Amino acid sequence: MSWETKNYSILLVEDNKLNQTVVKFTLKRYGYNIDVANNGIEAVEMYKEGTYDFILMDVMMPEMDGLEATKIIRDQEEGDERIPIIALTADIMVANEEKCLENGMDAHLSKPFDVDHLFKVLTELDL
Fold it and tell me: Which of 1, 82, 83, 87 could make an S-S bridge to 108, C-beta 3.0–4.6 Å?
């Protein structure tokens, strides 16, 4: 099943309300269900309570950033079960992308992201 036919359940972790609105509007057009966490603390709690196909995780947030939230989520995963976490960041530096991957994220998207680039990442992650 691919992103073209699947009704994904997505956890969007983003502290900026405008960015939340844009991402939700863009992805809901494809029939995806999107829950929003405003920071890393909310993301960890929602991950525990929900069932998501993947997480779109902002890196820079108040309260708890995306890197710390990712580490906590990875520590809570059981067995071979690993939820794909895609970093969202305004920082396009290669070093930042490497930092995200080193901290347990599976892919990286620069904000604002192009939906076709997201679909390419989903394909690369075999989702």
Answer: 87
DSSP H or E segment with residue 119: helix 115-124
- For 110, the enclosing helix (H) or strand (E) is strand 107-110
113: DSSP letter:
P
Tokens 């998207």 found at = 109
Q: Report helix, strand or coil for 29.
A: coil
Instruction: Look at the pTM and tell me if it is higher than 0.85.
Output: yes
Return the axis-axis angle of helices 40-49 and 66-76, rounded to nearest 10°: 30
- Give the side-chain half-sphere CA count within 13 A for 127: 24
Indicate the pLDDT class of residue 95, thresholds 50, 70 and 90.
Answer: low
Which domains are assigned to the chain?
Answer: 9-124 (3.40.50.2300)
Q: What is the Cα–Cα distance from 59 to 33, expressed in whole angstroms?
A: 22
Sorting pLDDT into bands at 50, 70 and 90, what band is 1?
very low
Instruction: Report which residue type is found at 68.
Output: E
Rounded distance, CA 32 to CA 10, Å? Answer: 7
